[in-house]
Amino acid sequence: MLARVLALAALLGWFAHLPLLTTARDGSWWQSTGATERDNNNKSGGYSDDDGTVSHDDAIDNADAKQRGSGDGGSMLYGGPNTSAILSTSNSSSDLSIKIKNYYNSKKGPLFGGYDPYIWDDDWSNLNPKCPWANLTFLPRPCFTLHWICVDQETLVTHDWRYSYANPRREPLPDMPWVENWNFPAAVGANTDALRGRGPRYRLHMRPASAHEPTAALRNPVFTNCTLPLIIVADFPYNMGEFFAKVLTALDQLSSTAFDDKVTLALTTPMGLDLAPFHSLLMMSYSRYAPTTAVEMGSRGCGDKQLTYNGRICEPTADEDGRGYRSSSRSGCRVNEAVPWSVEATQPHCFQRVVMCKWDLQIGGGSPLAAVARRVVSAFIAKGMLPASPIQYPGSSSSRETNEDGVDPDPRGSSMLRVLIESRQGPVRNIKNLEELLAACKEVDQIGFSAGSFDRLSCAATSFSERDGFVDRDRFLTNIAAVRSAHVLVVLHGAGATNSWFMRQNSSALVELRPCQFGTRFAPWPDKYMPKQHEKNDDVIRFFGLNIEDQTQCLQGDIETALRNHTYHRDSVGWDASYFARDQHLVLKPGPFLEFIRHVGELLFDVQQYRDVRDADRLHGYVLPEGLMYGPLSITNLTAYRTESNPDVIPF
Ligand SMILES: *[C@@H]1O[C@H](CO)[C@@H](O)[C@H](O)[C@H]1NC(C)=O
Ligand SMILES: *[C@@H]1O[C@H](CO)[C@@H](O)[C@H](O)[C@H]1NC(C)=O
Ligand SMILES: *[C@@H]1O[C@H](CO)[C@@H](O)[C@H](O)[C@H]1NC(C)=O
Ligand SMILES: *[C@@H]1O[C@H](CO)[C@@H](O)[C@H](O)[C@H]1NC(C)=O
Ligand SMILES: *[C@@H]1O[C@H](CO)[C@@H](O)[C@H](O)[C@H]1NC(C)=O
Ligand SMILES: *[C@@H]1O[C@H](CO)[C@@H](O)[C@H](O)[C@H]1NC(C)=O
Ligand SMILES: *[C@@H]1O[C@H](CO)[C@@H](O)[C@H](O)[C@H]1NC(C)=O
Ligand SMILES: CC(=O)N[C@H]1CO[C@H](CO)[C@@H](O)[C@@H]1O
């Protein structure tokens, strides 16, 4: 009896989208995901040039107003079945499947316009092995499935009967999820968040099929089940750290439960922007097809391409439904070429199923970051894509460091501590005296260096991007090779820290430098990203924060300077003390810095010792005017801490 009640509850949840049972009308689909209240003061990212406040942004305020205005939709409309209900009856789930299937079957008929409107979303293993396999039964909440969809540029055209105007009991169209937060990827070599670079929120449109479809492919839709697009909607899509932490880990998880690698990955990029090279490279492990953008997937076919790429004139589209050539059909083509994102011989425009997932600041993430990083790097290694490290440490023969296909020997050893310092260009967060630090490393190495098993020290510097901030495909892969040839990666808080995930695990460390006040007064911002994430991932990369709290070692960033001297317009720069703190340059005194590096070297290999020191609140560093102090993260008031705890300060 109980089982029957539960099964009924599950059925009600499952069928809540049917007109008779529908209660909510305009709830955004993600409102039912239990997403917590949006927090306007939270910075995003934390790794990257793109991280920023939400607080000054009109788009966000609108978004909030909208969320408040639309009430608690809380419906099950587009979220798939009530998973918890079904799981709670897990021992009767096959029973349940049959019941649901029968329900569907009994509803088939002419009313549904000839299409089965509610395709049974279980596995597709009965399909041609060339076609995607998917099990969409238990998609996680931020994902949902749409049926009978054509894609035309930025618009999803639904042929689903439940949304048709011809259906007197039609439902409102589902709300397409927004790319709510994103910073415009300008070619300026600086974080556009500090430059008010926030883009207006963006989403794809959705409309029902009409009497005036623009192309032959849309007028005569052929719905394929051999291409399964997964349209990804993500906050901060151009922020590699966010993308890696939220999208890639979620994708990794889905790939082990819901899809095989024949899925087509399409990222929603605002305003027709292209993918960044890191998108394609990071997603490579999850689809055998080239990732694309949602808009590219909706491209109309051969028209422009044929004219520009091989000079062939595109034949004007004739209708294939017997009505002949219409002057209105100027776009689209009779002949569609194959596309790299599908196995099919010609570009598909219409799909039996399209899955959409929205991963944002609140919802996202899946598999552990370190595991995903291992998978991504192994794929590069297996394909022979990793170049040799660009960094030549003394005493290493370059031949030993050349990666051969499928082989990735560890060149580092355990006697010379290899330190790689990120050299940043652009107007903010540079280390102004890199050469001095490199020279000091050499000197210390000559005088005598000792840290754990290490008795030599070697430092090198590298930039992770071009001057304009661009990271092309080769640079991205070279960066990975570079960090894998080092024991310690030193970065200023920012995008460079994301590379720490690609280091060799269990024998590498990340040192994150935080300029004056950023690691103390504003500590909650940087402290909640890298340190938390690495700790959550079993410290396979050891995280060390070094907070520079000596004013003589911090310099105002160029953006703040230009703002204060009226070179920059007030309207084009975010006036925010936390940005100013983050964006300072550093002029590091070599003494305390290298003492800290020695401390890192001592704790590098022994994770237990590392954790003991962390538990003893002596892991992270604070560079004071008097010297170097060890302490925990998140000391927001150094004066108070020093009064209470009276920690030693190593004088310099
Ligand atoms: C899903 O089902 C469970 C168990 O029946 C129930 O407790 C829960 O409230 C349901 N969730 C929603 C969103 O309806
Ligand atoms: C699941 O199976 C167990 C034993 O096999 C049974 O006691 C239990 O009532 C079942 N639960 C449901 C929801 O059917
Ligand atoms: C589909 O996924 C669900 C939940 O993960 C699982 O219970 C079911 O067995 C899967 N079906 C197939 C055919 O793998
Ligand atoms: C997929 O489409 C092909 C061709 O239309 C059809 O023969 C096949 O039954 C479909 N398979 C499924 C599982 O829908
Ligand atoms: C890291 O070391 C731990 C033991 O300290 C071990 O369990 C784990 O498998 C190692 N991970 C990798 C990736 O080497
Ligand atoms: C203002 O600051 C910018 C950035 O540091 C600098 O390039 C410029 O020369 C300064 N202008 C004046 C008048 O000081
Ligand atoms: C830090 O603590 C000291 C006393 O320990 C207090 O005088 C000072 O105002 C505090 N600073 C801030 C910024 O709260
Ligand atoms: C101001 C602030 O930091 N607010 C919140 C940011 O997000 C975390 C977790 O999502 C909350 O715990 C903070 O309160």
From TrEMBL:
It comes from the Eukaryota. Residues 1-24 form the signal peptide. InterPro entries: Glycosyltransferase_61. Keywords: Signal. GO terms for molecular function: glycosyltransferase activity. Residues 32-58, 391-414 are annotated as: Disordered. This is Uncharacterized protein. It comes from Volvox reticuliferus.
